[in-house]
């Protein structure tokens, strides 16, 4: 028997979740808007660290740690990886190896709206794109349905009714239990909310970027609207892709995401931003927290926030992120 075969057999040993995973349920979960859904305050994002170029053993360890500690919400999109689709394939493998017996304990979300295949139908918000993309996602994840399906971004060229009716039909076909919107402007969000209500498919959740460096949905009134309308709000990029950690307090490490330059650019770390990060780090230290813990806690204490999506490169990093659940409130 080869070493590779032995390793594969070890990876497929039966996974037994921690019996204590729901012991802290009162602190772990929040109701999503005015729905019946409870989501963990800190959810696991699959944007990074779950692609085919990443270690499957590490991805598996992160997912195990998450579920063992009550993190039941896994957030994906059709183009997460890299390459595109590979994060969903990783989840499909995790379902086969570990989570199939626990499917009903998980709340799985995926999205469509960014480019995923060539040609005019591989992008944006047409019925063709949304329907075909979700079918592809379900095959990659080895699932019959997802709990939540998002329109990943607003499409100014496609009629709203076409995008929204596709979401309605996806629910009616049983391919998703709930629908959500991400990166939609306020007026389009209001129109979508009314349309979906009129078709008996309520808008469960809105996903937008909120962090200590970017308060767009707060300043634009989106968070207030969601709170008043009974729509949940999930915040992505809560650590600003690592800026709100101790990673960049002294410059750009050679092995950092910014050094690679795909999503973060070196020129973004201006002297002014570096000073601000260092000041925030001092504030965090006075609270007895790391900068990352404080950044997550700040979001969780904004009225109307349901959950923050935190990625993790290791179980240890996820453990640190989960500390934000118990952080003291503050305002600045």
Automatic annotation (TrEMBL):
UniProt protein name: Aldo/keto reductase family oxidoreductase
Example GO molecular function: oxidoreductase activity
Organism for this UniProt entry: Prevotella dentalis (strain ATCC 49559 / DSM 3688 / JCM 13448 / NCTC 12043 / ES 2772)
EC number annotated for this UniProt entry: 1.1.1.-
UniProt record, GO biological process: methylglyoxal catabolic process
InterPro entries: K_chnl_volt-dep_bsu_KCNAB-rel (IPR005399), NAD(P)_OxRdtase_dom_sf (IPR036812), NADP_OxRdtase_dom (IPR023210)
Enzyme class: oxidoreductase
NADP-dependent oxidoreductase domain sequence ranges: 42-329
Similarity field: Belongs to the shaker potassium channel beta subunit family.
Keywords: NADP, Oxidoreductase
